[in-house]
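Researcher: Predict the fold of C-type lectin domain family 11 member A.
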Amino acid sequence: MFAFDANLHTLIATALQALTGTGITTVENGCPTNVVKSVGSQFFSVLGDACFQFVTNDDVPFETAQKTCRQHNGTLAMPKTKYINDFLLQEMQRRQQLKPMWIGMQDTIREGIYVWEDGSQVRHWGNMHYFNGEPFSSGEDCLALNPLDWQWHDFDCSNEKHSFICQYDVQS
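Model: Structure tokens for C-type lectin domain family 11 member A follow.
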């Protein structure tokens, strides 16, 4: 298994963009301009076709986090691959965010069946805390990334408050 390497990612992205003749996507030209201007570019990162906003100064219930992301045509982050998941965790650590952050995954409709914000079913790769010996709890239906153990943890959606990560499509 390979760990995410930000320098290697940048090198590969730059080489691919040079080969294809496209410009390099940055926070300034790829993320929602109005949001970047209002909070500052230091809270954003771009990976591929996604722009991620790290809202680290506002601990809120899950639904409030969802609404905040949707106000700017985004969703809570959906790290559907280990590569994206590792990128988000490294960005959390780079920002010294050592507490869990809400991501766009929940099992509120059917206990134990996790879905992403876009309605697709979650596939895991051993990163859910449940699969490491501690079962998820009934009534704790919303998930957050924990940068201390690099696992997904479930929490009570209404009573727990966490910072969160929004995901936006890169602007063309």
